[in-house]
Specification:
Distance between the termini of chain A: 31 Å
Oligomer: heterodimer
Distance between the termini of chain B: 39 Å
Largest sheet of chain A: 6 strands, mixed
Order of helices and strands of chain A: EEEHEEHEHHHEHEEE
Radius of gyration of chain A: 17 Å
CATH topology of chain A: Rossmann fold
CATH superfamily of chain A: P-loop containing nucleotide triphosphate hydrolases
CATH architecture of chain A: 3-Layer(aba) Sandwich
Shape of chain B: elongated
Number of helices of chain A: 6
Chain lengths: ~240, ~800
């Protein structure tokens, strides 16, 4: 297998919730390899979002190390984490998090303006099949379309990592499949290392590799011999 | 005790949002403090003055005359409406003191006021502040007025040289005194400008000094007490007319009521200046605070839409939910009002103490009238509750399920600027700012309006100082061109001008004839001075309120526009002029013009015509001189030797006195109003930014996640605020100008008419104060932006 882009070793994360400590992650080892499509599955509360936040530079581990290539993210300060997200990570969230005051094209441009060598917003939107909706505002788009704009925004900077947290969580089945197809296509055409987090087990069929998280620990890790195309996935 | 869940929520909300609520409370407090402090100060000053006048029996009518036998006083007492007559002796003296250490450049002049046997005048009493009263029968003892004693460094036991009717005497000062009629002692002359340094009042035993002034069995001044309800009415005018009629054969110089008594006139003028600020500005502050309270509370309620829906879903009744918000509003309003009342009373007491000292009122009566406190509280409560309730009603009307949803997705549109094709200039951040402002037009407008009001209030605070500067400049730099004016004892032949003009230091000498008349037009009459100008003279000019030089009268009478309006006289009308000197009697004069002067009510005409009217040859009553620089002491010394010279006034000295009397209280008021204005500006800008932050936290956190730096997202949020503030500035300046106009219109036009001139410095000052307030608010909010919850925001739906 190729080289690890992102690597976490013995990562723990403890939150203090009022009077009690919540151990969200308890010693997780994890790697994401070059151009890989990985699905991280787990029930709610299993720690998958916490892990993704740490991998994406939104949070720091309580102990353990996280490396993006040679950079130690677990020791990075706020400014360095911002820089890491800005240069290398594309995010897709459950609730899209688009700027309501900007059109589809402008939401993508928001990211391309602060990137080196990005795709043009039109190219990125074409990749997600929204070339005909460039000048629509989020309030004029369906949920699935909004999520595709979010994917276009995530990939426009040609990130090395694409991190998707429950990308279909707020969508109906049909829209969800379209969004997964788009993510699949980006992974294949741009070779972006992609991690999709979901509690929806069937989605793991489209991955190269599946990591199952349970109660803050990696319960299982497996490689799919054959990947099911997004269009064939049912739930 | 069991606390209901809603009350517990109230307590927690108060704790959690304390900073935001505190700024709302501060806006209320600033409004109420300004309202209470200024109104109570003004009322307390009037009370202090009234108490002083009452306790020391200040008269209602004052009249000076040449000489009348004592029995004439009985005739005055018979005039209907008069309850008491106090005939007395008031005579000018000279005090040949050497120039002291101060800037005094000429010997002071003085006035001897006779004291009755026993030393307690029935009217116009004397307040002994130090030493003892004079002993009856002694013509070499005197009480000296405090203002002069302080400046000249004279204490009881000292002696003072006094020239009475040409005789030099040493007078022992037995005590220092003050009196309601000399709160502002002004030397006789045409300008009623007080001068502590150059004007001394000596109270002496009348019996003992009467022979010196040839006033045995006679009087030359009278003070009258009017029956209650007569003063200030048409009956008073009737009394004045009757008194004038009785005293005419005795050289009566025209009776005046309190309004024109020199000291009271000046005191009233200054109280009016204060009132202009204290009457109008506090109402403005309270209004602005109430408006802002309404706006910020309604926003606060709107932010809680989800919680309100949840409470409704749980079965809470509208009344209970409404009660919760009313309580929230009340807590903020009452705490703010309480603070405002306390600060207002504290400041009011301090201001009153400052002004009573400044206005030389020996008694201090301070209190916050309950009506003022109640009005302030009532306005704040009503606006607070209405503000919270107005918005709440809209939310309560929604079905809970609907209200629990977030407000419908924001619809944005490209702004006008973008439609014009310049949108690309702004970049994504710029577009977000523009569209956000464009979408919430009403909120943007209200926010800007709030900032504009704060700015306007600061402009108004400084406007009176500006107006005063303009008046000084127009009157003393443009209208009055001489360096020195010399008032003469009685009119003198015109050759006096040439004689004085021959002095080597005098570069130009002109003459002026001023006489007091009563103008009559139909049933309306006014006592005013008429100024007569020599043809070809140029040291006096007529200025209109726009600062333009008006032409000198070429024939007939030119009146101050306000005077013509008050008397309903048109150009071309003829007025009756009752003369008080020269050949007395009534003459008729055509009114040939009006001039829109800034203060005073007077008439102007050619001197030759005025001389003819008075039945005299070429005669002047004042001399106007220009000098070589620095020659004033020399000229003054020479003039002092001339027998006809009554008083020499340097223009610089007059301006300095005026500035001293006016500048200091204005500085204090400007400072106070600026502080309140700034608090309001901070309250508005901070609340705007906090509300915007609540509404935009999710977007801003999303941007942080996408890799935007703290600086960049601060730029977006604060950029919005900055635009609102910048947009507000021109409007605020305009509002300030409009409010200044309103302020000017509340002044009594008979005294002076404020030019509506706001200086660039005032605009700049107000702008800087508001920008600084905005900056402080921005820094406060910026700190919060640094602690945005990046992860939480991704888990919630908008």
């Amino acid at each position: 297998m190729s080289q690890a882009v992102l690597e976490a070793r013995d990562v723990t994360r403890t939150y203090r919730m009022g009077e009690v400590d919540v151990h969200a992650l308890r010693g997780v080892d994890f790697a994401l390899y070059e151009s890989e499509f990985l699905v991280l599955v787990g029930a709610s509360g299993s720690g998958k979002s916490t892990l993704m936040n740490i991998l994406g530079g939104l949070d720091r581990p309580t102990s353990g190390t996280v490396h993006f290539r040679d950079q130690d993210l677990s020791r990075a300060n706020d400014r360095q984490l911002t820089e890491f997200r800005r240069r290398h990570v594309g995010f897709v969230f459950q609730f899209y998090n688009l700027m309501p005051s900007l059109t589809a094209r402008e939401n993508v441009a928001l990211v391309t303006e602060i990137s080196r060598d990005p795709l043009s917003p039109a190219e990125a939107l074409e990749m997600v099949g929204l070339e005909h909706r460039l000048d629509h505002f989020p309030s004029q788009l369906s949920g699935g379309e909004q999520q595709r704009v979010a994917v276009a925004r995530a990939i426009a900077k040609r990130p090395e990592l694409l991190l998707c947290d429950e990308p279909t969580g707020a969508l109906d089945y049909r829209s969800g499949v379209v969004v997964l197809e788009v993510i699949e296509r980006v992974n294949q055409e741009l070779g972006t290392s992609t991690a999709v987090i979901t509690h929806n087990a069937p989605i793991s069929e489209m991955a190269n590799r599946v990591v199952v998280l349970h109660d803050g620990q990696v319960e299982e890790e497996r490689t799919n011999e054959t990947r099911t195309p997004a269009s064939d996935i049912r739930w | 005790m069991r606390v209901s869940p809603l009350n517990r929520k109230l307590l927690r909300d108060l704790r959690e949002r304390w900073a935001q609520l505190a700024t709302i409370g501060l806006v209320v407090a600033a409004g109420i403090a300004a309202f209470v402090a200024l109104l109570s100060t003004w009322q307390s000053l009037e009370q202090s003055r009234d108490a002083y006048y009452e306790e020391y029996r200040f008269g209602d009518v004052f009249v000076g005359l040449e000489r009348a036998p004592d029995r004439v006083a009985d005739r005055l007492a018979d005039v209907s409406g008069v309850t008491l007559v106090y005939p007395r002796l008031v005579s000018p003296v000279r005090i040949p003191l050497q120039a002291g250490t101060s800037d005094r450049q000429q010997p002071p002049i003085g006035q001897v006021v006779g004291l009755p046997p026993g030393g307690e005048p029935p009217l116009n009493g004397v307040l002994l502040t130090e030493g003892r009263m004079v002993e009856p029968g002694r013509s070499d003892e005197a009480l000296l007025i405090e203002t002069f004693a302080e400046r000249a460094g004279i204490v009881p036991g000292d002696t003072l040289p006094v020239v009475m009717e040409g005789t030099f005497r040493q007078v022992r000062v037995t005590g220092i005194a003050a009196a309601p009629e000399y709160v502002y002692p002004a030397p006789p002359g045409t300008d009623p400008i007080p001068d502590d340094e150059r004007f001394a009042v000596l109270w002496m035993d009348r019996q003992a000094v009467a022979p010196v002034f040839q006033m045995e069995g006679a009087f030359n001044d009278a003070v009258l007490r009017l029956a209650p309800g007569v003063a200030g009415t048409a009956s008073e005018d009737a009394v004045l007319a009757e008194v004038d009629r009785i005293l005419e054969p005795y050289g009566g110089r025209g009776a005046v009521g309190r309004d024109l008594q020199r000291s009271n006139y000046f005191l009233q003028m200054r109280l009016d200046q204060l009132q202009a600020l204290s009457g109008f500005v506090p109402i403005l502050f309270l209004g602005v605070a109430a408006f802002l309270l309404n706006v910020v509370l309604s926003r606060l309620v709107r932010l809680q839409r989800g919680e309100i829906a949840a409470l409704k879903a749980l079965g809470y009744r509208d009344r209970e939910i409404g009660g919760y918000y009313v309580k929230l509003a009340l807590v903020v309003v009452l705490l703010g009002s309480g603070l405002g009342l306390a600060v207002g009373a504290w400041m009011g007491r301090g201001l009153t103490a400052f002004f009573t000292e400044f206005f030389r009122l020996p008694l201090l009566e301070y209190g916050v009238p309950p009506a003022i406190a109640l009005v302030a509280l009532g306005v704040a409560v009503v606006f607070g509750v209405v503000g919270a309730f107005g918005t709440l009603r809209g939310i309560l009307r929604l079905a809970p399920a609907e209200a629990m949803h977030p407000e419908p997705p924001a619809r944005y549109r490209p702004t006008l600027l973008e439609k014009l094709g310049v949108g690309d200039l702004f970049g994504s951040s710029g577009r977000m700012i523009l569209r956000e402002l464009g979408r919430r037009k009403l909120r943007t407008a209200l926010s800007s309006f709030g900032v504009a009001l704060a700015l306007g209030v600061i402009v108004v605070g400084r406007f009176s100082a500006d107006a005063f500067d303009v008046i000084l400049d127009r009157h003393y730099q443009m209208a009055i061109q001489e360096d020195v004016s010399v008032s003469l004892i009685g009119p003198a032949p015109e050759r006096a001008v040439r004689e004085v003009g021959a002095l080597p230091e005098v570069t130009r000498a002109e003459g002026l004839r001023v006489t007091s008349v009563r103008l009559q037009a139909g049933a309306r009459s006014r006592d005013v001075p008429i100024f007569g100008y020599r043809d070809g003279d140029r040291l006096r000019r007529l200025m209109d309120s726009e600062g333009r030089v008006a032409p000198m009268p070429t024939g007939g009478l030119v009146l101050t526009t306000t005077l013509a309006d008050l008397m309903q006289i048109q150009v071309g009308d003829t007025v009756e002029v009752q003369l008080r000197e020269g050949r007395s009697g009534t003459q008729r004069l055509p009114v040939t013009g009006t001039v829109d002067e800034m203060f005073g009510l007077q008439g102007h005409m050619r001197m030759a015509e005025l001389n003819r009217l008075l039945g005299e040859g070429p005669t002047v009553s004042s001399l106007l001189l220009t000098l070589e620089e620095d020659d004033f002491p020399l000229v003054e010394a020479r003039l002092a030797e001339m027998p006809r010279v009554q008083e020499v006034t340097a223009k610089g000295h007059t301006i300095a006195r005026l500035e001293e009397y006016t500048a200091e209280p204005q500085r204090v008021l400007v400072l106070i109003l600026s502080i309140f204005g700034s608090v309001i500006a901070v309250g508005v800008v901070y609340n705007n930014a906090r509300v915007a932050l609540s509404l935009r936290a999710r977007d801003l956190a999303s941007l942080r996640v996408l890799g935007f730096t703290r600086g960049e997202i601060s730029g977006i949020l604060l950029g919005e605020q900055a635009i609102q503030v910048l947009v507000a500035i021109p409007f605020g300046l305009l509002i300030g100008r409009i409010l200044s106009g309103l302020l000017a219109s509340t002044l009594d036009p008979e005294e002076y008419r404020f030019p509506l001139m706001v200086s660039p410095q005032t605009y700049a000052y107000a702008t800087v104060v508001v920008l600084a307030a905005a900056l402080v608010s921005a820094l406060l909010v910026r700190r919060r932006l640094d602690h945005l919850d990046l992860i939480g925001v991704l888990k919630t739906r908008e």
